[in-house]
Amino acid sequence: MFTHLVSSTAVERSTYIVHVDKSVMPKAFTSHHHWYSSMVDTLTQSGPTTSDVSHSKPSLVYSYDNVVHGFCALLSQAELKAVKNTLGFVSAYSDRQLKLRGNTGPGFLSLFDSIPWSVTVAAGSIDRFFTGTLSLGNGFTVTGWTLFPASALVEKLPLYYNKTVASCDSTQLLSEQVPFSNIIICENTGSFFSQLEAISRSNVAAAVFISDDPLLSIDEQFPWPGVVISPNDGQAVIQYAKTGDEPWASMKFKKTILGTKPAPAVEYYSSRGPSRTYTRILKPDLMAPGSLVLAAWPPNLIASKIGSSIPLLSDYTLLSGTSMACPHIAGVAALLKASHPNWSAAAIRSAMMTTANPFDNSNHPIQDKGRNNTFASPLAVGSGQIDPNPALDPGLVYDLTPQDYVNVLCYMNYTKNQILTVTRSKLYHCSNPSPDLNYPSFIMLYSNESTAVQTFQRTLTNVGDDAATYNAEVVAPAGSKVTVSPNMLVFSKKFEKKSYTLNIEYKAEGNETNTYGSIVWVEDNRKHRVRSPIVLSPEVMITR
């Protein structure tokens, strides 16, 4: 029972999240919510009122019993101290605003708060292109990109180009110098989003935007008639506007092209690994569609706009970000759990990762928009793009238990209470701390001063229906030697486990470079391929 009492007047209070060990709830209470309410209701406090968040007494805001065990409450400092002395208290911290950390790419180590027991998802593009067609009076036609949401009549209007206003960043200048009902050409000199805002507040009829901004393809608002074209096509359009006899242009909107290549690609904004939270686990895990995803939307909120004053409402809209990619993974995970109810969360993650596709729809390695469309490394794409059908039947999985994760927390010198905050149970122990996990990927950090050697221990579980034999196929990262022992795994029955070691030797030569490889366990009949990426990364890049 909770017995701490103090005198009562209004005082300054803040919101706190309190973690509680629910296993020690006194039998007098019928529910944990009842127990938490009793804790808070018993409190009183003295002191002057000094804040707008003051209340006459402490109050329970919310009870938690799924993701965490505990409650949220408005408490003073003295009341918080009293709570810390109660039965079942684990930890407490003040409520605070957290920033989204998945869209901070494309820099190395731009991935934050990626814990080993989570699934960390990169955001990729979709093989779909929303087009606008620009037709010039000289017969030249170019297909560009647009998300203008209406059918606008842009037919044979004068095409205007003037170097003075071509930056298109001043609504006043545009309104003063561009003739009414003209189509203006905006050069690739600044932010496309600023140009679009300025254009939508001016009196121009439409705009041709010349841009190669990698963030263009995720813009969700296009409030004014316009088409975005490449710098190469832009030169031809400018030349016609400067030299043509009464140059004019027309635009057509609302056409979608499907099956565009190459796709998917890692989006510019998607955060890159390794994770600053724990660098010994390769993150992100895999990639899913994240840009311009058709998403449900509150019908009473503005979904898009025409100009600066005409709002458009809808039950759906296009959204971008890793917050759009994650639901794809969650949905696939739910389907896998329904199909395989006895699989652990780690087994489900493994199935998704080892069957992910590292190639795009042109059968080339997935590209990275944050690296000028060059090869996307596992630090950007993880194991590859989620592929749900193979994930239903992965052949082998890397499984984990909660104690395995606790061993990592013990290695990181977490206190008992900190570990209890995560596990919500006292059943786990720190008798075998370990920095490594039975994870479906590999990352080795090396020093530039010597030859680096690291051995990884892994265990695979056969989730196929029959006995099976698998052989290891290794692509060693540049400058390294990778040895797998044994290089053949023979499973005689379903759910049988087999272990192997993967040993990496790397000679550091002063080059601060990430290198990449993979190990694939291939079934004799080629039915299953269980692939894991390998990354070698210099410690100096991690610790800067």
Summarize this structure as a short list of keywords or feature phrases.
serine-type endopeptidase activity, 20% helix, globular, alpha+beta, 5-stranded mixed β-sheet, Glucose Oxidase, domain 1, 544 residues, single chain, 29 strands, Alpha-Beta Plaits
Characterise this structure.
This is Subtilase family protein. It comes from Actinidia rufa. Residues 256-364 form the Peptidase S8/S53 domain. Residues 15-100 form the Inhibitor I9 domain. Residues 436-535 form the Subtilisin-like protease fibronectin type-III domain. There is one protein chain. The protein has 544 residues and is an alpha+beta fold. Among the domains are: 14-94, Alpha-Beta Plaits (2-Layer Sandwich); 128-258, Glucose Oxidase, domain 1 (3-Layer(bba) Sandwich), CATH 3.50.30.30. It is built from 12 helices and 29 strands. The longest helix has 18 residues, at 322-339. It is globular, with a radius of gyration of 29 Å.
Low-pLDDT stretches are 1-9, 45-54
Shape: globular
Number of helices: 12
* End-to-end Cα distance: 50 Å
Helix/strand structural class: alpha+beta
Give the C-alpha Rg. 29 Å
Helix content: 10-25%
User: Which sequence of strands runs across the widest sheet?
Assistant: 7-6-12-8-9-10-11
| Top-tier CATH class of the domain at 128-258 | Alpha Beta
GO molecular function: serine-type endopeptidase activity
Family: Belongs to the peptidase S8 family.
Domain Inhibitor I9: 15-100
Domain Subtilisin-like protease fibronectin type-III: 436-535
